[in-house]
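Exercise 7.
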Amino acid sequence: MSSSHPETLGALRKSPYAAPSLARRSVKDEVRANLLARLAKGGPIFAGVVGYDETVVPQIVNALLSRHNFILLGLRGQAKSRILRSLATLLDEVIPVVAGSEINDNPFAPISKFAKMRIAEMGDDTPIAWLDRDSRYVEKLATPDVTIADVIGDVDPIRAARGGHALADELTIHYGMLPRANRGIFALNELPDLAGKIQVGLFNIMQEGDVQIKGYPIRLPLDVLICFTANPEDYTARGKIITPLKDRIGSEVMTHYPESVELGMAITKQEAWANRGGLPVRVPDFISEVIERIAFEARMDKRIDKRSGVSQRMPISVLENAISNAERRSLLTGECDVVPRISDIYSALPAITGKIELEYEGELVGGHAIAHELIRRAADATMEERAGSLNMDDMVMWFDQGNALQVDGDVSSGAMVEGFQRIPGLLDVVYDSGLGESGDASVVAAASELVLEALVARKKISRSDAGQYGRAQPPERRRPNQDLFGGGMMA
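Solution. The predicted structure, written as tokens, is:
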């Protein structure tokens, strides 16, 4: 506690904190005032949140200015938790509380029996503690096994016995997380997973300011900003949320994934651990684009569950894994920098398969095969965007003549470029498209792999799981008596 802050109630009453505009100000008014000040300054509302300036942020701002409790509806990996945690920056740096209070009682308007008794007994000598803004943010993940005791509180028989109190006495209550968030922000993630009786308790707190604990009615006029998160499908499903609670949530704000590849790349660049303090890391723009497009392709793939979504954490993890594989190769080959290639993205398959949930059709194909397809389609889209008009017939013809090229992910960039020089026109496409420059072997090797991968996606050439590029393989045809599962049709 800073010595500049009053330490007793008497000193607090003589300080600026006793002004009517501050003494009994609610947390929603506090957030509103600080938000208005931030808007007037023109600074970012939520630091580190990219792509929501025109969509999500204005809706949240309106909810806060309206003093609403609100809910963020969105799929996983859409920055919902980050936004909620950023709300703490809209609180005052410190606020006074009655020292020893479990629910952060306001010295000028106490609500707990403990605080009222202490002020009555000690008067102006009542000790004051100071609570920082981070301690005023309380977050809870809702699960079916969460109880009333966890969220609201329970009677503590041991406390009752030691203090000689009746069980109905408020002093016997062990408060849950919501009362402990009094004069702060309470965030509840995955609201639909909360049992109905807990939702009723929340409704009573939000609407009436009271709740029953073990059958005893306790009046708790809590001062708290409550915010929730939920999956849209679960939230709208009948029976998941009790109607009175849903009706008391002032605003519903829909989050979303990045609306453009460029925004996604900016988020991934911001979040991924790239600069590791060892060898310098250079990630070519086209590699970043391929990685980001993997997520975009996955979100459009019908074989991947749309209800679960494809988290923005996927491209972040893929980029980190690709850099790690390139880092390992640089140490093995003695190269002086770390430059990821397409083959490094293939090495990051676990970061893809672990973050997609498949529909029935996808299960038939398998996550590994779908991940390969996503990489190829992403490479093709990137190549089309950057060099779609360039002629690649000479390369295709070279492979059609029976030639092949084995790409080893652990070979140095210089050796890779020497191998790519065998393919007619490949390096010309790399240079003419601006993907790479002569003399920068690391980027040229990565760009050459991109060109070949795009040809694989277009079925002009083939690529084995071992990394060998060769002539295009004819599509497999099912025999007339063979069903989708590979077995014969029943007679």
